[in-house]
C-alpha cells in the first residue's frame, strides 16, 4: 500500500511517484503513456466535472489503475488543494483504512480522535481529489469511508478503481473495456495494424523484451490473432509479449491456443456468476489462462519461487526473498537468478526507491501465486517464515535505535509497513501466534512514535494483548508501550490501567526492567498532566534503574523527560539533564533523538532567559525533524519558537509561527491544550501576542501562519527563504 500526494496540495508529501499499471512495470503516472485510452480519459474527465465520486470498474488486468493515474494527471489543475493517491492492494485489515487514507493526505495518526473525524475536518474546506486504487477487497469499508468524507467535505472528489461499484449515493460508474483488437479472419497490413491499440501495446512491450522485434508482413497476422485471442486485455498482452525473449510469435500463439482451449470450454460450460456479464467472465477466464500459460513457461525454479514471493505484501528486497523463500529444494544462491528471470517475464516488477532495488507483484499475479501456495500446502509455513524475518528486522531496528542508523531505520520501517502489517495480521489470525504479535507491535515503538502512527500502534497492541492474556515479559513490554502511546495521544484515562497492570505483572515476575519502565511512564503520565514534582520523582527513580541496567534507550528517554519536567517546574537540574541527554545522542550519532534533546534543552535555555541560544537549539531540532517529515516534532519546534519570538519582541513573527503550529497540531488531531505541561504557556503566549499587536493585526498574522505549507512554515521559523523541497518517495505510509 502506498500513499502519495501532489505537490500542489498544502501539506504532506509528494505526488504519485509511480503507477503500478497493468503493464507489469513501473511507468510514468502521466496520461501520455496510455495506449488506446483517449476516449476513456476524455469521458472520465467529463464525468469528474459532474460527479463527486467516479468509480472505474472492469475485469482484472484491464488497466483500471493506469487509467486512473492518467485521469488524475489530466485533472490535476482542477484541484488546487491537492491530488492524493492511496494504493490499497496490500491492505488486509479493513479497520486500518481510515488511518491509511489519513496518512495519504499528510495527516499523522497521533491523536486519540478517530481518523475519520480527523480526515473530515482536514478536508472539509479543500477542493481536492482522492484516488483510492484497488478497492475490491475492501468495498464495504471504502463505501462507508467515502460516503462519510463526501458528506463532511463538500468540495472533495473521489476517483476509485474497483472490480465492482462502491454503491454509494451519487456514485458514477465508468466501465473500463479491453483494448480494441484487430478484425478477425482477414489479412492485415502491418502499417494499418500498428494503429490498433491492442497491437500497439503488444509491439511496445515486445520491443522491450526483444529489441530486434519488428512488426512486418511475416508476423502481422500472427500478432493480430494473438491480440484477438487475448481479448485485448493489457496484462495478458504484456505477459505474452514478454515471452518473445525466448519464443517467436508463432510459437507464442501455438502455446497460447493450447492453454486457452480448455479455458474456453470451461467458460462456455459454466454459468456466469451473479451480476457478472458473460463477456466479462470470458475475459476473466482468458486472463487466468494467460497467467497459467506464463507460469507453465517458467523454469522449475521460477515456478517454485513465484508462489513463495506472493507471501509478501507490497514490495520486498532481494535479501528478504533469499531468506524467506529459499529452502525446500530452492537454494539461497539461486534466488537472484530466479528473481531476474521473473522480472524478464513481467511477473515481478523491479523498482528503485531511495537508492535500493525493490520488487513487487501485480495484484492479479500475487493472488495467483497465493492460490498456488495454498494448493501446495505451504502457505502457513511461508507466512510464519515471513513473520519471523520481520520480527527479527524489528528487533534489529530497536537494538540500533541510538546509533547513526536511526534515520535509516525510520525510513526502512516506513517502507516495510505493508509487510509488517501482514506479519501482525498473521499473528492475530493464526492460533498460538499472538505472543509473537506482542513482540513485533511493542518492538515497533520507534516507528509508531516517530512515524506518526500512534493510533495504529495501539490498534495492534490492543489486539495482541487481548489475544495473549497470559503473563510474561512480552506482555509487560506491550503494556508499557501501549501506555506510552496513549499518553502521547493525551489519552491518560487509557494509559493508567495499562501501567497498573504492567507494574503488577513486573512484581509478580520479579522482572526489574519492566518495573523500571512502568515507573518511568507513570512519571511521563504525571508530566503530561502537569504534576511536575511527581513526574520528576518517578522518572529519576527510573533513570537510576536504566543506568544500572545499561539501557541506553531508557536513559535517553528518561533524561529527555526530566529535562522537560525540571524546566517547566523551575528545577535548575534541567540544564544538566539536558546536556547529558544531548551528549548521549551525539555520542551514538542518533540524529532524530538528538533533535528531541535539542528541543528540551532549548525549552530550558529559553526559560532561563538565554533567548539567542534557545533559538539556535530549537532551530537545530527543527532542521532534523523537517528533513525526516516528523510533523509532530515540527509542531513542537514551531510552538516553542513562537513562544521565544513572542517574549522577545517579535510579535508579528510569533503570531505567524503560532498559527502555523496550531494548523499543524490540528492536522495531527491534537492541541497543546490537551497536554497540561504545554497548555498554560501556549495560552499565555496567545494572550500576550493579541495584546501586543491588537486584535486585528494578531488575527491577520495568525491566519497567515495557518496558510503556510510545512516547508514554508519551517523556512519562516529558520528565517530562510522558502525553497520548494524535491518530491519525496512514495510513502509511506502510510502512515505511512
Describe the model.
The protein is built from 34 helices and 9 strands. Helix 10 crosses helix 11. It is globular. The protein is mainly alpha-helical and 736 residues long. The strands form 2 sheets. It has a 6-stranded mixed β-sheet, sandwiched between helices.
Question: Topology, pairings included?
Answer:
Elements: E1 2-5, H1 38-48, E2 53-57, H2 64-74, E3 83-87, H3 97-104, H4 115-123, E4 129-133, H5 139-152, E5 157-161, E6 172-175, H6 190-193, H7 197-209, H8 220-229, H9 234-242, H10 249-269, H11 278-297, H12 300-309, E7 315-316, H13 318-325, H14 335-344, E8 348-353, E9 356-361, H15 363-375, H16 379-399, H17 406-415, H18 417-429, H19 434-443, H20 445-450, H21 454-467, H22 473-488, H23 492-509, H24 512-528, H25 532-549, H26 552-569, H27 574-588, H28 591-607, H29 611-627, H30 631-646, H31 651-667, H32 676-693, H33 695-706, H34 710-717
Parallel strand pairs: 2-5, 2-6, 3-4, 4-5
Antiparallel strand pairs: 1-3, 7-9, 8-9
Short note summarizing the structure:
This protein has 736 residues and is mainly alpha-helical.
Write down the Rg.
28 Å
The share of residues in helices is 55-70%
Poorly predicted runs of 5 or more residues: 1-32, 267-278, 721-736
Structural category is: mainly alpha
Strand content: 5-15%
Characteristic terms for this protein:
mainly alpha, globular, six-stranded mixed sheet, 61% helix, disordered C terminus, 9 strands, single chain, three-stranded antiparallel sheet, disordered N terminus, 736 residues
Amino acid at each position: 500500500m502506498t500513499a502519495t500526494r501532489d505537490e500542489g496540495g498544502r501539506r504532506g508529501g509528494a505526488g504519485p511517484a509511480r503507477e503500478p499499471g497493468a503493464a507489469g512495470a513501473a511507468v510514468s503516472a502521466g496520461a501520455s503513456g496510455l495506449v488506446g485510452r483517449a476516449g476513456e480519459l476524455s469521458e472520465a474527465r467529463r464525468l469528474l466535472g459532474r460527479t463527486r465520486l467516479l468509480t472505474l470498474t472492469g475485469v482484472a488486468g484491464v488497466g483500471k489503475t493506469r487509467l486512473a493515474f492518467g485521469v488524475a494527471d489530466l485533472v490535476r489543475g482542477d484541484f488546487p488543494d491537492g491530488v492524493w493517491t492511496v494504493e490499497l492492494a496490500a491492505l488486509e485489515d479493513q479497520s486500518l483504512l481510515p488511518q491509511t487514507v489519513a496518512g495519504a493526505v499528510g495527516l499523522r495518526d497521533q491523536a486519540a480522535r478517530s481518523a475519520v473525524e480527523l480526515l473530515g475536518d482536514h478536508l472539509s474546506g479543500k477542493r481536492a481529489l482522492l484516488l483510492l486504487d484497488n478497492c475490491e477487497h475492501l468495498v464495504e469499508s471504502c463505501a462507508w469511508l467515502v460516503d462519510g468524507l463526501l458528506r463532511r467535505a463538500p468540495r472533495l472528489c473521489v476517483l476509485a478503481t474497483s472490480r465492482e461499484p462502491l454503491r454509494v449515493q451519487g456514485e458514477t460508474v465508468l466501465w473500463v473495456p479491453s483494448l480494441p483488437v484487430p478484425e478477425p479472419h482477414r489479412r492485415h497490413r502491418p502499417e494499418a495494424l500498428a494503429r490498433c491499440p491492442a497491437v500497439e501495446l503488444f509491439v511496445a512491450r515486445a520491443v522491450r523484451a526483444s529489441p530486434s522485434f519488428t512488426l512486418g508482413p511475416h508476423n502481422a497476422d500472427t500478432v493480430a490473432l494473438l491480440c484477438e485471442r487475448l481479448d485485448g486485455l493489457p496484462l495478458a498482452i504484456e505477459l505474452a509479449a514478454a515471452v518473445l525473449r525466448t519464443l517467436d510469435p508463432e510459437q507464442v500463439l501455438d502455446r497460447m491456443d493450447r492453454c486457452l482451449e480448455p479455458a474456453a470450454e470451461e467458460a462456455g460450460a459454466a454459468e456466469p456468476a451473479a451480476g457478472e456479464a458473460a463477456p466479462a467472465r470470458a475475459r476473466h477466464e482468458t486472463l487466468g489462462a494467460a497467467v497459467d500459460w506464463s507460469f507453465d513457461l517458467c523454469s522449475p525454479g521460477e515456478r517454485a519461487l513465484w508462489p513463495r514471493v506472493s507471501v509478501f505484501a507490497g514490495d520486498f528486497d532481494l535479501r528478504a526473498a533469499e531468506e524467506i523463500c529459499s529452502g525446500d529444494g530452492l537454494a539461497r544462491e539461486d534466488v537472484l537468478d530466479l528473481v531476474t528471470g521473473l522480472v524478464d517475464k513481467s511477473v515481478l516488477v523491479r523498482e528503485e526507491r531511495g537508492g535500493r532495488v525493490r520488487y513487487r507483484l501485480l495484484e492479479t499475479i500475487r493472488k495467483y501465486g497465493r492460490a498456488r501456495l495454498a494448493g501446495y500446502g505451504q502457505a502457513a509455513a511461508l507466512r510464519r517464515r515471513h513473520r519471523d524475518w520481520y520480527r527479527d528486522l524489528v528487533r534489529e531496528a530497536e537494538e540500533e535505535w541510538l546509533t547513526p542508523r536511526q534515520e535509516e531505520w525510520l525510513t526502512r520501517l516506513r517502507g516495510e509497513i505493508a509487510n509488517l502489517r501482514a506479519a501482525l495480521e498473521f499473528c492475530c489470525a493464526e492460533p498460538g501466534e499472538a505472543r509473537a504479535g506482542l513482540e513485533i507491535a511493542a518492538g515497533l515503538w520507534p516507528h509508531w512514535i516517530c512515524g506518526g502512527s500512534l493510533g495504529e500502534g495501539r490498534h495492534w497492541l490492543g489486539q495482541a494483548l487481548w489475544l495473549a492474556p497470559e503473563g510474561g515479559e512480552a506482555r509487560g513490554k506491550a503494556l508499557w508501550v501501549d501506555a506510552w502511546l496513549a499518553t502521547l495521544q493525551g489519552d491518560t484515562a487509557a494509559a493508567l490501567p495499562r501501567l497498573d497492570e504492567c507494574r503488577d505483572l513486573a512484581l509478580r515476575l520479579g522482572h526489574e526492567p519492566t518495573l523500571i519502565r512502568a515507573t518511568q511512564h507513570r512519571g511521563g503520565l504525571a508530566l503530561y498532566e502537569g504534576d511536575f514534582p511527581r513526574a520528576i520523582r518517578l522518572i529519576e527513580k527510573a533513570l537510576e534503574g536504566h543506568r544500572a541496567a545499561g539501557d541506553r534507550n531508557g536513559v535517553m528517554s528518561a533524561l529527555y523527560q526530566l529535562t522537560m519536567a525540571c524546566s517547566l517546574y523551575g528545577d535548575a537540574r534541567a540544564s544538566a539533564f539536558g546536556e547529558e541527554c544531548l551528549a548521549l545522542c551525539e555520542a551514538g550519532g542518533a540524529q532524530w533523538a538528538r533533535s528531541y534533546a535539542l528541543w528540551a534543552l532549548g525549552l530550558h535555555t529559553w526559560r532561563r532567559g538565554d533567548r539567542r541560544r534557545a533559538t539556535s537549539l530549537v532551530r537545530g531540532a527543527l532542521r532534523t525533524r523537517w528533513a525526516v517529515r516528523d510533523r509532530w516534532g515540527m509542531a513542537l519546534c514551531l510552538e516553542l519558537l513562537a513562544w521565544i519570538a513572542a517574549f522577545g519582541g517579535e510579535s508579528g513573527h510569533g503570531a505567524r509561527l503560532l498559527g502555523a503550529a496550531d494548523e499543524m497540531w490540528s492536522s495531527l488531531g491534537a492541541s497543546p491544550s490537551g497536554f497540561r505541561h504545554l497548555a498554560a504557556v501556549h495560552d499565555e503566549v496567545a494572550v500576550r501576542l493579541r495584546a501586543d499587536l491588537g486584535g486585528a493585526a494578531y488575527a491577520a498574522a495568525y491566519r497567515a501562519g495557518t496558510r503556510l505549507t510545512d516547508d514554508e512554515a519551517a523556512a519562516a521559523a529558520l528565517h530562510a527563504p522558502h525553497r520548494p523541497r524535491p518530491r519525496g518517495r512514495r510513502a509511506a505510509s502510510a502512515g505511512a
